[in-house]
Amino acid sequence: MCLSLPCIELGKPLVFAYCVFPEDSNEDLFWFPSGEQLLCEASTVLKYVQEDSCQRGIYGKLVCTDFKIAFLGDDESALDNDEAQFKNKVIGENDITLHCVDQIYGVFDEKKKPLFGQLKKYPEKLIIHCKDLRVFHFGLRYTKEEEVKRIVSGIIHHTQAPKLLKRLFLFSYAAAAQNNTATDPKNHTVMFDTLKDWCWELERTKGNVKYKAVSVNEGYKVCVRLPAYFVVPISLPEEDVLRFQGHGIPIWCWSCHNGCALLKMSALPKEQDDGSLQIQKSFLDGIYKTIHRPPYEIVKTEDLSTNFLSLQDIQTAYSKFKQLFLIDNSTEFWDTDIKWFSLLENSSWLDIIRRCLKKAIEIAECLEAQNMNVLLLEENASDLCCLISSLVQVMMDPHCRTRVGFQSLVQKEWIMGGHCFLDRCNHLRQSDKEEVPVFLLFLDCVWQLVHQHPPAFDFTETYLTVLSDSLYLPIFSTFFFNSPHQKDINMGREHQDTQSKPLNLLTVWDWSVQFEPKAQMLLKNPLYVEKPKLDKGQRKGMRFKHQRQLSLPLTQSKSSPKRGFFREETDHLIKNLLGKRISKLINSSDELQDNFREFYDSWHSKPTDYHGLLLPHIEGPEIKVWAQRYLRWIPEAQILGGGRVATMSKLLEMMEEVERLQEKIEERHHSQGALPAEGPSLLRSSARLSSLFPFALLQRHSSKPVLPTSGWKALGDEDDLAKREDEFVDLGDV
Counting beta carbons within 10 angstroms of the beta carbon of residue 577, is it exposed (0 to 12), middle (13 to 18) or buried (19 or more)? Predict the structure, then answer.
């Protein structure tokens, strides 16, 4: 096979490049984003199919640019129209962004070894594990030696060497596409980068009675960690915000329908001097009085730094968990399948998800049933605070279960909340210790809710999956900065008086950049139960409360305790904020457990109101593996013509039938019927789809037997099992 990339020079910008195949094949164009530069390449590379022998594959050219690693080869078969509709327009099936590379391995004399730094000997096969859990095998046996050295060294260097922020492809793309950054007019996501956005959110949640949006940090004059605008209690003087550069300040997250609020606070700097400690204690005492005014307002503190998960726990659990899905071949899959449940339990990832959901339910119980404000405490209030506050809002606020509402929530709590995406995703490759998948943990927790209560969400699990993939796409600025200040200063927006025009990047919320309109239909849930619109008569006298509240236990607000207790509670808050650990919370664990169990059981004993409070089941078997994200690249894990996609297809058929009947009824009444809403046509023929649709369409189906061969020798050898497999008939092909 003859492959070439004309008009490409190493180190020169690319507008686009294409690959020419033999005369008997079709010519395909391979487009590169604006500003992309070719760094190194190798010809006659074999991309293996994931099978035991690893002898089958496709020959082509392997290239490395400053944006991605790409394999340019001739497909075995042309994609059908349905499959092509869900292709990502930015990243192809054989493309890996440099930020998506997790580990690189080389095979030397059939032994797999991790590759780092300068190599003395070069491998005959290159294996790349990706952060989206894809696994690529590239054979280099027939590639020229010089090209092998160049491509292997180039890939290792550009995916592992520490980088400077300004050297990321993000900035090259922004400069090259400066005049081509049109946004989707249908994107109504609230970005929370103006004072007006925060005032709108306060008004939406009825929080403007007790809280105010402030611009004291405009231009980041007070603190580079906080956004330019945020919300604090009305009674809080603005000079208090200036006192410790935004630390120790209760920052508003969300207001409940009953007037209670969810707040967060970062710890004050640790001081050794007794005088400084006394000053901090007096300051916090005053702050506490602004939010804790019994019997009208009672605050419960939740210290997430000392009484909850650690970032190390999350990192360790996910490191073990992801190894279950980075499968090199079918043999490895079947060997690990026998001990799958024990490996899954040992990773503790599902247990961490359960603990996060349980903590969010506990906080929802305080807000909803006990009418208490909740103050989340964390050292910087930018990791676990983002996670738990977002989960609470998804459970309690139906607006956050719409796509626009969910995207606005991510903007408010994660982007403007100062979550360090640059460090937590390790985009600069500067510290593996800082890489912790906190945002992915949040998406996994949300998926548990989507999986258990599908009609309550406007978006699908496919939406959550492609959102997790977008963490590693450096053409969007959304997930590539540690704070709004870092973004503004590097994009040239902090000083508007400069002559240079500030860079303008797309946000990840403009889905038209990645997907065609037909593919975007798979991001919207056709079974979403929209909130019914009430007429004026129904609206009159209506109280803004969750319908679910009528079924909750009538827990009275706690009576005003003695004065000494307030002193103890204040000291408890101060000790936490000053970094001193305490042995237990003021509330006994037994009391918390009793309240939680009563609240949890009462909610699940009633019919679900999809536009009210929404709680997940957190019992052992109810917390499941997010199959679409984690198993989508493993052919052996697919169920052809089955799974949730088959159920969804049948439901859509029923919906269409009901709509047709309804249209006929309306026609008989001589009224013009509305056109039926069209569901995703990609789901029409479920028999030919996989349970991991729409991603599994790109995968070759495994020819391995259903039973694991290594642990079941008594059932016969592999040849016997293969013969038995041939006896089955695929009904989808009949």
Answer: buried
- Answer whether the bond into residue 295 is a cis peptide, omega within 30°: yes
Q: What are residue 93's phi and psi, to 5 degrees?
A: -60, -35
Low-confidence ranges of the chain (pLDDT < 50): 1-31, 76, 78-83, 497-498, 539-569, 579-589, 673-676, 698-734
Say how many C-beta atoms besides its own lie within 10 A of residue 500's C-beta.
7
CB within 8 Å of 438: residues ≥ 6 apart: 311, 314, 383, 384, 386, 387, 419, 424
What is the residue whose two structure tokens read 């009563």?
A: 598
Closest CA to 134 of 64, 18, 47, 67: 47
Query: What are the beta bridge partners of residue 300?
Result: 374
Q: What 3-state DSSP class applies to 332?
A: helix
The reply to whether omega before 694 is within 30° of 0 (cis) is yes
Q: What pLDDT is recorded for position 499? A: 54
Q: Which sign, positive or negative, has the C-alpha torsion 196, 202, 208, 210?
A: negative
DSSP track, 474-519: TTBSTTS-SSHHHHHHHTT-S-TTSSSPPP--B-TT-GGGTS-HHH
Residues 51-64: tens digit of each pLDDT: 555 568 899 999 99
**Distance (Å, whole) CA 200 – CA 205:** 9
| 3-class SS string, 39-89 | EEEEEEEEEECCCCCCCCEEEEEEEEECCEEEEEECCCCCCCHHHHHCCCC
Any residues with CB less than 8 A from the CB of 320 and at least 6 apart, and which? 343, 346, 347, 348, 349
pLDDT at 701: 44
CB 406 within 8 A of CB 459: yes
Kindly report the pTM of this predicted structure: 0.84
Closest-CA residue to 72 (of 54, 85, 58): 58
Burial of 376 by CB count in 10 Å (0-12 exposed, 13-18 middle, 19+ buried)?
buried
Alpha carbon distance 447, 441 (integer Å) = 10
149 Cβ partners below 8 Å, 6+ apart? 122
What size, in residues, is the chain?
A: 734
Contacts of 606 (CB under 8 A, 6+ apart): 548, 551
Query: CA–CA separation, 549 vs 555, rounded Å?
Result: 11
Q: Is residue 152 helix, strand or coil?
A: helix
Q: What is the pLDDT of residue 170?
A: 93
> Which residue's entry shows tokens 């190194």?
40
Q: Is 265 helix (H, G, I), strand (E, B) or coil?
A: strand
Structure letter (DSSP) for residue 11: T
CA distance 632 to 643: 13
Rounded Cα gap, residues 624 and 13, in angstroms:
45
Please report the pLDDT score of residue 670 as a whole number: 65
CA–CA separation, 102 vs 98, rounded Å? Answer: 9
Looking at residue 640, what is its pLDDT?
Answer: 82
Residue 257 to residue 493: CA distance in whole angstroms: 37
Sign of the Cα torsion 220, 225, 231, 236 reads: negative
The mean predicted confidence, pLDDT, of the chain is: 81
Query: How many beta carbons lie within 10 A of that of residue 622, not counting itself?
Result: 13
Provide DSSP, 628-681.
HHHHTT-GGG--BT-SHHHHHHHHHHHHHHHHHHHHHHHHHTT--PPPPPPP-G
The CA dihedral of 124, 130, 133, 138, to the nearest 10 degrees, is -20
* DSSP label at residue 413: I
Listed in order, strand segments (DSSP E) in 574-642 are none
- CA angle 609/614/617 to nearest 5° reads 115
Torsion angle of the four alpha carbons 500, 501, 505, 510, in this order, in degrees rounded to the nearest 10: 180
